[in-house]
Structure formats: C-alpha cells, structure tokens
C-alpha cells in the first residue's frame, strides 16, 4: 500500500523550479529608464486613426546583463503609447502571434461591448486577429490597455502585456501643464526572475515578486532638468500596491487620476496607486540644484519585505537647467454633476486566505462564470454600489468596465478631498474597508465585467458580469 502512491507522486511531480535570482545582487540605479515608444497610425482620415499591433514574444534586458523572454505588444516592453483625442475614433487591429489566446481590454474606456476586450471575447493564438474600435466619446482620461483573456490575463500581464493610451481633449489642452518631453508615461510594477533571466510566474506569489520595474527596467535612474515634469503613472503590477514619495518628503502635486484631471491639484507627500490605478503627478525639480540625485521611494512595504528592494523605485538625477513656462493652475476642470441615484447594491469581495494553490476568490459568494449574469442594470440608470473587502489580510480593489465612477464615501466618511474626488474606474480596498461608488450606465448596452484588479485574484474568480439593457 505505501510504495505505489509514493512512486506515483514522484512521477507526477512538476519539474523543479528554475533557480531564483536574488534581487539583492541586482545593481540599483545603473540603467536609464527608457520611454515607451509612441505608436504611429498607419492611416489617418478626418474622423479616425488606424493602428495595428502584433502580439508577439520578444526578449529584453530588464535586469542588467540578463535577457528575459516576454509576451509583448509589438515587441516593446512596456507596450507602446497610443495618443488619442476625444471626438476622434481610434481603430486598432491586433494580430495574435503568441501561442496563447488573448483579449485586449482598454481599461477605463467607454466602448461598445464588442471592442471592450472582455474575458470571453478571445483572439485565437498563432495568427488570430481582431479589430477594436474606440469611439473616444468620453472626456480626456489616463487609459491603458492589457490582456484580459479569462484565466490567462494574470500570466499574460505578468509576462508583459500592458500599454498606455493617453486620451486628451480641449479642456486639458487649454491648460499649460508640462507637455512634450516633460510629460512622461511611467509603467510601475514588480516581477520575479530566475537566475537565467526568465520570469517566474506563479499565481498568487506576491511575496516573491520583489524586483521593481519602471518602464521595463529594474530600479532605473532618470535624468531630468531642474523644472516641472508631468509623470503619468500606471500601476501595471499584478498585485503590488505602491505608496510613492520623494525620499526627502517634498511635495508631489497630483493633478489627475484614472478618469483625467482632478478638479484642483492635490498637494501631498505620498501618491498611492493600487494595481490598475493611474496617478498623474507633477514634480518640480527646480527646487534641486543641478547635480542632485533624489529617489522616488515606495512606502507600501509589507513586514515580510525588504525596503532595500521594494522600497526603491526610480532615482532622479538633476543634470541641467531648462526653461519652464508650464503652469499648474488652481482649477483644472469641472466634473460632471452627480445625478440622483435610483438603485443601491452591495458587492462583497472575499477570497480564501489560506494561500494554498487553487485558492478561490469570490464576489457576493460566487466565483466568476462567464455564462452567468450577476447584475442586471437598466440602461441610463444611476446606481450606488457599496463595495466591501471582507477579508482580514488580503487587500483588493474594485474595477468596473464601461464607466468612470465617483467615490462617494470611504468607510462611512464622505470623500471631499484628495485623489478620490476625481473620476475613477478602480478603487483600492484594504482589508475590512468599504467604499460607496456611484455610476451612470449610458452609452452602450451589453455585458461587461467588474472585478478585483489584482490580476491574480481576478483569475481566481473575483469577477462578475453586469448586463446593461
Ligand atoms: Cu484593467 Cu477588467 O481590467
Ligand atoms: Cu483582490
């Protein structure tokens, strides 16, 4: 009786994991932070810009001296930047040259269901194609795109499938915010590597993803002039929360969030972004003499983590002076009025906290079923959703497709200042927290998902369908 099961267990054991790279040995601040390439349209008409992208494997140097195989948009990591304008359509034809299915979601966008990139709307591997149409009928916003293929999104994103989509409009353009070479998208995330440079993906292993990447390089430096810069930060990590500060504690000016500019600038020493969230931040380097180096640090470090690793992000080097006629005005925009809500709902987010492989995650007690409609919404309705993180240890966040929402309350307190006063599509929930959000469902009918944006949790089932009809 004893021998056979043991033999079987050995026979079915997965191959030994590749030897892990110790991040302590990775040189910090020796590589320059690159800029993500701006994607050019192949055709432009009076109404529409046409793009194409090829989803393919590519190898990049992320950690100095090592080569890493990635799943990419067009071979770039992070993926390219699309620059779009409200009122002008963007059409993107995606060709999937990977050997896995994909679905490309434009996060934060107001789009018809067939261009939403939902988990069930797959592009076949090995040459499948799909054309996504983005009407850009919403105001300016800090959007981004990433894979969303059901059960695959977590690994596909971890292996590189993210990109930036900057939607601008006249309201934003009228302001004289830092622009051009001083307006810089930054993709922040973490990763985990083998000694041979390959990524190690293991669902839910957030404790071991302790190499911090900015625009696809581990702990880069970035040379700046002594003037104001605008950084459009996207948290593209699967599970990591960032709380970003300048090492000397000096001021960061948060001017925008997921759905574009805040009503007025928020002056702070810490900018927090959970996975999927964006922060639009102005840093004024004119306070530093040329020759200064100043680190952007992360204060969201768990007790089991090392601040020497995950507490370090980017080193800024002030290398020159430069003319600066940019301005951060006291009023940035007027938000749309909040209509009265007619429906209230509750959303409960919870997962198994054992940490065991095969853990399940739930919304209102159910794991995701792509064939089940969880929430029926009347077209045009304004609704208030009370969202709770019922876990004791696990953080979550809450993301809805199709809409930008407003955060009315956090833990029973009205939200009256700070970054959550803006338009949001993703909102963090630490263990035990509750938020009340309000959304109006107009523009398109169809089935869209809402979910936890910690990709590993979404892939474990913390996702649900809403149907607007
Ligand atoms: Cu960025 Cu459904 O996600
Ligand atoms: Cu979660």
Automatic annotation (TrEMBL):
Name of this chain's protein: Spore coat protein A
Any one GO MF annotation of this record: oxidoreductase activity
PROSITE patterns in the cross-refs: MULTICOPPER_OXIDASE2
Domain Plastocyanin-like: 65-169, 226-287, 347-467
Transmembrane annotation, as ranges: none
Family that this chain belongs to: Belongs to the multicopper oxidase family.
InterPro entries given in the database record: Cu-oxidase-like_N, Cu-oxidase_2nd, Cu-oxidase_C, Cu-oxidase_fam, Cu_oxidase_Cu_BS, Cupredoxin
Keyword annotations from UniProtKB, A to Z: Capsid protein, Metal-binding, Oxidoreductase, Virion
Gene name of the encoded protein: cotA1
Record-linked Pfam families: Cu-oxidase, Cu-oxidase_2, Cu-oxidase_3
């Amino acid at each position: 009786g004893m021998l056979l099961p043991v033999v079987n267990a050995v026979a079915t054991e997965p191959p030994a994991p590749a030897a892990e790279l110790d991040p302590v040995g990775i040189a910090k601040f020796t590589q320059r932070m690159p800029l993500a390439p701006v994607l050019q349209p192949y055709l432009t008409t009076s109404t529409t810009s046409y793009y194409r992208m090829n989803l393919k494997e590519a190898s990049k140097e992320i950690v100095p001296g090592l080569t890493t195989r990635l799943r990419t948009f067009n071979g770039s990591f992070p993926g390219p930047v699309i620059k779009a304008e409200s009122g002008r359509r963007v059409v993107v034809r995606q060709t999937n040259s990977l050997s896995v299915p994909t679905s490309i979601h434009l996060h934060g966008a107001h789009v018809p269901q067939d261009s939403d990139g939902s988990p069930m709307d797959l592009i076949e591997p090995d040459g499948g194609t799909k054309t996504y149409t983005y009407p850009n009928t919403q105001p300016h916003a800090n959007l981004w795109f990433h894979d969303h293929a059901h059960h695959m999104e977590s690994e596909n994103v971890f292996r590189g499938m993210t990109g930036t989509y900057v939607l601008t409009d006249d309201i934003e353009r009228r302001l004289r915010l830092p622009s051009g070479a001083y307006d810089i998208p930054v993709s922040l995330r973490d990763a985990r590597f083998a000694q041979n440079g390959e990524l190690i993906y293991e669902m839910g292993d957030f404790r071991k993803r302790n190499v911090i990447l900015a625009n696809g390089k581990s702990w880069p430096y970035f040379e700046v002039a002594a003037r104001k810069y605008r950084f459009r930060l996207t948290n593209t990590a699967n599970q990591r929360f960032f709380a970003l500060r300048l090492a000397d504690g000096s001021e960061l000016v948060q001017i925008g969030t997921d759905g574009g500019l805040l009503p007025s600038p928020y002056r702070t020493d810490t900018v927090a972004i959970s996975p999927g969230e964006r922060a639009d931040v102005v840093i004024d380097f004119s306070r530093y003499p040329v020759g200064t180096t100043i680190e952007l640090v992360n204060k969201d470090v768990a007790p089991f983590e090392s601040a020497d690793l995950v507490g370090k992000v980017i080193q800024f080097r002030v290398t020159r002076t430069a003319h600066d006629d940019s301005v951060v005005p006291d009023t940035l925009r007027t938000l749309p009025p909040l209509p009265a809500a007619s429906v209230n709902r509750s959303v409960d987010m919870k997962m198994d906290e054992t940490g065991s492989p095969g853990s399940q995650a739930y919304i209102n007690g159910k794991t995701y079923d792509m064939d089940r409609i969880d929430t029926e919404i009347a077209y045009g309705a304004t609704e208030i959703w009370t969202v709770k993180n019922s876990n004791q240890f696990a953080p979550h966040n809450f993301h809805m497709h199709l809409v930008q929402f407003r955060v009315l309350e956090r833990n029973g307190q009205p939200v009256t200042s700070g970054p959550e006063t803006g338009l949001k599509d993703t909102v963090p929930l630490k263990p035990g927290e509750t938020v009340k959000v309000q959304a109006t469902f107009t523009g398109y009918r169809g089935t869209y998902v809402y979910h936890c944006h910690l990709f590993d949790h979404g892939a474990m089932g913390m996702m649900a369908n809403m149907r607007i009809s």
